[in-house]
Amino acid sequence: DSDLSMRTLSTPSPALIFPPNSPGFQNGRGSSTSSSSVTGETVAMVHSPPPTRLTHPLIRLASKHQREQANIDRLPDHSMIQIFSFLPTNQLCRCARVCRRWYNLAWDPRLWRTIRLTGETINVDRALKVLTRRLCQDTPNVCLMLETVIVSGCRRLTDRGLYTIAQCCPELRRLEVSGCYNISNEAVFDVVSLCPNLEHLDVSGCSKVTCISLTREASIKLSPLHGKQISIRYLDMTDCFVLEDEGLHTIAAHCTQLTHLYLRRCVRITDEGLRYLMIYCTSIKELSVSDCRFVSDFGMREIAKLESRLRYLSIAHCGRITDVGIRYIAKYCSKLRYLNARGCEGITDHGVEYLAKNCTKLKSLDIGKCPLVSDTGLEFLALNCFNLKRLSLKSCESITGQGLQIVAANCFDLQMLNVQDCEVSVDALRFVKRHCKRCIIEHTNPAFF
Question: Where does the F-box domain lie (predicted)?
């Protein structure tokens, strides 16, 4: 047993990720390094490479017909690699146990640009350690090919797993750890400090993450230009409830290349935080501050400084935003394509009019639950925004069938219309369907089908 353990450790083979009660777990050999003591969890096990032939004296030799080569084995290596490229991480590891040829093909570096692990019970820290150790076999301590790591929803991921990624994957470009609420700022700091090419970071639902910055050692080493060293362009911090204006200030100062930023339900963010953001991050194209209840018209004034660069804006359920804030956006952000203002009850027909006349290339608009918007506002939309494809008017109490007919008669490319909980007639819905052939209508009128 000790010889087997030493051989397995010195020659790492595929990391096999599956539940212990599966058939593969019962038949596995050489698993002395696996952590199989926890019942019902998914673990990562290390196995020695598959033998080229069966040598056990109790195993009967196969017949001549059975020894004939299988059809799939007649495929050339490049075709097999192409097939393997469609497999998820755990299935690719299973394939590596079939035979020695499959083992060599499954660990082709071209197949390991991405690691994707999912599941609440998976032992992610161990799985990442085993996988990176195997991928570092040809290039000691460095995974040169690995560019994407997605471990969303893996609640057992801890800082230890992120430390492994930071130390072994200097070429990492994309990291998604959404829903992994056990990771902290320190581990995230290590990743952004040791992975200089990181462009896409998703830490949504990670409630302990309050900031994105370099480690102190990296800051000292790169000072005074360290603020420009983080190359993140896409940052999703949805549901990071503890994020405050000071943390957003630090993020903006260090991540000056941001183009996509999502702060949904970051309830402590205020207009002051948005002011910091606009000072440093002048290239933002997409921004979401939905459910940030302290953001007001003053925040819209700051966001309007992005001018024509802003294409996507979500301010849903920001109750302090009124027509004044909408006028700021409409006046300066003329190339806006998407606006979600659902639940902003201070928006009226005047705000919609100003928006329609200045943002004529608008393609998607959500003004649901805005009770002060009526058919008058829809008429301004219909006469100015001919490219409108998606329109949500859910729970707009002042909307009638007349306003819908005006929209349908002018916006022929309409593809989605939401009029749930609106008092509109069946005739109006049929009129929309007749003029907008490809439009999907979401409604609550049982007479229309």
Answer: 69-115
